[in-house]
Amino acid sequence: MGGPNKLLAEIDGVSLIRRVAEGVTASRASSIIVVTGHRREAITAALAGLNMAEVHNPDFARGMSTSLRAGIAFIGVDVDGALILLGDMPFVDAETIDRIIGAFEACGGTAIIAPVYEGRRGNPVLWPRRFFAALMAIQGDKGARDLIAMHAAEIIEIAAGEGVARDLDTPEAVAAAGGRLRPDAP
Asked: Does residue 1 fall inside a structural domain?
């Protein structure tokens, strides 16, 4: 983004991070963990009143993988899978999340579940516990794309709407979505 924290950008007066969090809290997800990094206090304030745990990633500047590892490390031993949902994808709705969870349950929690829009895989992706160690091994400023490629035969794809392929990575994308960036406080 090169400036303000995109997660605090607003669409219709609601921050991106809150939109994402409201979508997941309206779903069947059994527990929700938000990983905070840059502007922790502002992100936490934007999520006030929602039922979720917070884990802070003090190494956020070292890349996306550090947030992925912080979230996976926080998960309890009784959890069968982790749905990795990105904070800059405000158009993923509860219905999509519920369909991903349903597909995971239907396969007995053994496959990676990935949504697809117009032939392109998107996010969020639901990972079985057996992949947690591999997720923890990811380094740098990247997510699990390489891991998905390595395990393509173990993926169940489900059809989904445009929201799974629409992340807001640039000021232009935020503006095109009807949003506006908020200047970061010092």
From this structure: no
Burial 77-93, CB ≥16 within 10 A → b, else e:
eeeebbbbbbbbbbbbb
List pLDDT tens digits, range 151-172. 999 999 999 999 999 988 888 8
Going by C-beta distance under 8 Å and a sequence separation of 6 or more, which residues neighbour residue 139?
63, 65
- In sequence order, the 6+-apart residues with CB closer than 8 A to the CB of 23 are 90, 92, 93, 94, 97
Does residue 112 contact residue 126 with C-beta atoms inside 8 Å? Answer: yes
Residue 147 maps to which CATH number? Answer: 3.90.550.10
Q: Which residues contact 72 (CB under 8 A, 6 or more apart)?
A: 82, 132, 135, 136
* pLDDT tens per residue, range 59-104: 998 988 999 999 999 998 889 999 999 999 999 999 999 999 999 9
What sign has the CA pseudo-torsion 75, 18, 103, 66?
negative
DSSP summary character for residue 115: E
Distance CA 158, CA 168 (A): 22
Please check whether residue 186 lies inside any domain of the structure. no
Q: What is the pTM of this model?
A: 0.90
Cis before 124 (ω within 30): yes
For residue 75, the 8-state DSSP code is S
Residue with tokens 């158009």: 91
Residue 22: which of 46, 56, 42, 57 has the closest Cα?
Answer: 46
